[in-house]
Structure formats: structure tokens, C-alpha cells
Request: fold
Amino acid sequence: MGAIQDLLGPASQQFSQLGLGAQIGVGFAAFLVLSVVLNVLAQTLFKNSNEPPVVFHWFPIIGSTITYGMDPPRFFKEQREKYGDVFTFVLLGRKTTVCLGPAGNDFVLNGKIRDVNAEEIYTVLTTPVFGRDVVYDCPNAKLMEQKKFMKIALTTEAFRQYVPIISDEVTSYFKRTADFKGQSGEVSIPPKMAEITIFTASHALQGKAIREQFDESLAALYHDLDMGFSPINFTFHWAPLPWNNRRDHAQRTVAKLYMDTIKRRRANPEIDAQDMMFHLMNSTYKNGVKVPDHEIAHMMIALLMAGQHSSSSTSSWIMLLLASRPDIMEDLYQEQINALGPDLPPLQYEDLAKLPLHGAIVKETLRLHAPIHSIMRAVKQPLHVPGTKYVIPTSHVLMSAPGVSASDPVFFPNPDLWDPHRWLPDSPNAPTMARAQDEEEEEKIDYGYGLVSKGAASPYLPFGAGRHRCIGEQFANVQLQTIVAEVVRLFKFRNVDGSNKVIGTDYASLFSRPLEPAVIHWERREKA
Ligand code: HEM
Reply:
């Protein structure tokens, strides 16, 4: 005791001579060092061999948040090399267990309802944006019914109407937009694709009247809603911060606009209308309750928001990749000439099936640039990971990253090469797993919103799998292929410096997208 006092005596004397600011600084530094030491000791001395290995990290709470957040795919690949397909990392203080590879995708995405839960994770972000009683602000069984209602407006019959609508929106956008005046020019493409996406989706899914309001107030309101989807809101969704206030105001205003429209339509029924709102207005839950107006309004917001980020990011990547490979853009143009004739008649839904390279462009872009890089679930009871000795406790969050298997050389030769032709017959880079190519053979299951493939053995799942699988896949394909076909008819793209380079990815928001500005050079095929 005396020896310690001898040791600490001079130090504590020096400490007391410091000013208050310096004392706080020294105290904080000592606390930091102590917490780092305890954190490292805990990782090295108290390993639980029945739980997945924990990614080494110096600081508690921060854990691997920064390395994960900067580049999630790289983080997953690096940790996979060290720890295998199943490992845990600390993300903002929460132990997050990642399960990779087709088996990992299956384990997380096809998890049983009593084992895993999406709404507990996502509701803090989505409920203030979409509104009450829909998607993740209701029991899962109700979401399954809501997905069934929404899917009714996403049929082949509906897509037949959507293709000309989308085509018109794209061509009229390029006619009226100042950045595309003249014969050639340079433009940062992502903001343009974001506008094209919202115009095409709102017109097709929500009708002409709603679409017209996107030229006025709605675009700004949806932008404010969008701000609610920032990662910081996983923690501060409740805080009276300026962007959260704007989010709440926008949610109330947009919902009221839809509810007023519903009231008007109920007063003057349109017999031939077959749009999303019409279908939702005529839907009844299994318990006999008609879908209330506020739920219809909130589902309309949810659908548009769900599609916006993913389709806008994907179409931006497609345009940037085409600019990096003008030869493939020419292949697309030739495909249309060969399949539809040299006069290129107005595009119809049936034409899309005659344009396999257009389909492959979308598929291959989603393989390398799926907008949703991490899918999360709460763990409801201790989960044994098949084929391992690991049990994941309920204190962990479960994470799936299907992008990892989609860029694994085991399944995709030359995985980092953007090669749309790999999805067409006789390609040397064809997916090596037959099942990756042929979803038709997949085991199908109905969670309450129609048959979907389980995707259990597929390394390629950009639209997810299981009960939370995307219902917008076909719409997104129709929308993206139509946009690509119209752009290819109008323009030739290349990189400004003529290289094959492709810009990096921005992971700062919840959905990955190209870094901006992402400038391409465009040239009209015909004289303006
Ligand atoms: C769910 C991807 C477009 C509506 C999902 C999920 C993924 C995904 C990965 C699963 C999320 C999870 O398991 O937690 C994509 C991609 C798109 C796209 C890559 C475009 C390229 C759309 C569009 C719509 C839409 C256009 C609407 C028309 C939905 C809905 C869900 C969903 C309603 C269900 C959420 C749930 O059940 O929890 N999407 N999506 N998506 N998506 Fe999409």
C-alpha cells in the first residue's frame, strides 16, 4: 500500500497542479486506455467457444463500426478470410452476427418467424417515414396480407400499361431537361436517374394526377421523407432534430394528400381504374376489415420509397457501367434493331422478353451493385447455426449479406468483372451453379403473398428471400429495362476521359450507390 502511495504520490501531486481542462483531459485519456485494455482482455481471455468468433477491435461500443461502415463488402470479405462464413462484429455497441454464403443467406432470410424478426430492427426508421399500421409497424401476418394486396397491382396486365408510361416519361425527360440540350455534353448522371426513377414509378404506380404533383410540391416532400432514412436515425429517430421535424411534417402532408384523393375517388368511383390505390381501396383483410384509408396512404408512401432508392441507384450504376463499356451499349442498340426492326417502334411489354441482353444488364449490375448490402434481423431465441457448434444468443443482431456470395469466384468466374453476357448462353463466365441461373427450379413457398422461390441454395439474391422477399422485383425489372432501352435509343455514352474506369461506391447512406459527382459524356444518336 505504502509502495503504491510512493509511486502515485508525485503523480497525484502533479495532477492536482494541472488546470481543470487538463485534468479532465488526463482523466479521459486514462479512462480510454483502461477501457481499451479491458476490452482487449475480454476478447482474448473470455472467448465463448459456443458463440461465433468476434472480429478483433480495440474500442468498446465503436467496435468495427468504422471499418464496416466505410466499405461493408470489403469488410465482409476480409473477415470471412480470417473467421469463416459465420462471425460476430460490434456495430454501434451491438454484437452483430454475420452469416455468409448460400447457407448463411438461407439461415437468415428463410429463418422461422419464431426465431428471427425484421420489424424490431427496421421500425424505428420506417414507421416515421411510412406512417402507422403498415409494413414494420404491425404484426408480420398483417404485412404478409399487405404484400398480397400490393402485389395485385404488379401483374403482367399492369406491366403492359406501365411500359408505354415509363417510355414516355423517359423520352419527355430528355427532351425538356436543360442538361441534355444540344448534340453532346457532360453530366453527373445519378441525380438525373433519381428524377427519372421517381417520375416513372409515381406515374406507373400512383397515376397521372399524383405524378403531376412531383413537378411541384411532392418532390421536395419526398426528399424530406428520404432524410429520415439516414443510418444515424437508427439511434436518433426520436430526436427533435431539424431533419426529423421536416420528415414528420412531410409524412403528415403526403399521407393527407393520398387520403384526400381516396375520399374523392370514393365519392366518384372510376370503374375502369386498375392502379395501386384502386386495388388497395378494394382490399379486405382476412378478418373482414376493409383496409383503412390511412393504411392505404401509408402503403402508397412505403411502395414508392421502397422502390426509389434501389431502382435509382441501380439505373445510375447501369448508365455508369455503360459509359465505361460503350461497346456493350452498342450491343444493346443492335439487339433492339435485330429484335424489333430498324425503325424501332414504340416499346411494348412483350418486347422486353425479346431483349435478353437488356435483362442481363440489369441482372449483372445487381450482382455487383445490389443497393441493399446488409439485411438485419433481431434474434428471438438462441439460434443454433447448422453445421457448426455455434449458438447465437438473443442479445445479438443477425445479418445477411447476399452480395458476398454474388461476387464469390466459386459461383461466378471472374467475379469482379461486369460481364452481362455471362447470363446469356455459352458464356465462359456463366455462373457455375446451375441453380444460380435457373430460379424456375427453386423450391417455392407461400408466406401469404403468393408463391416465391425460397432461394435456399442460390448465391444470387439481390431481391432477398423468404417472407420479407421483395415484391417489386418484376416491376423494377420492367422499369429498369424500359429505361435502358429508351436511353440506348437516344444516346451513346462514354467516360469523359474515354477510359473503362468505374467510380467507387458511396456507403454513407443506408443504400449503396455511386459516389457523386459521377460525370459521363453523352452524345445523341440523331441530330437534336
Ligand atoms: C423487400 C431489393 C425494388 C418493394 C426487398 C428486399 C430486398 C429488396 C433485398 C428484402 C429486404 C429484407 O429482407 O429485409 C430490391 C431491389 C430493387 C427493389 C434490389 C430494385 C432494383 C423494389 C420496388 C418495390 C419494392 C420497385 C415496389 C414497387 C419492396 C417491398 C419489400 C421489399 C414491399 C418487402 C419488405 C418486407 O417484406 O419486409 N427489396 N427492391 N422493391 N421490396 Fe424491394
Notes: The CA atoms of residues 153 and 206 lie 10 Å apart. The chain has 21 helices and 14 strands.
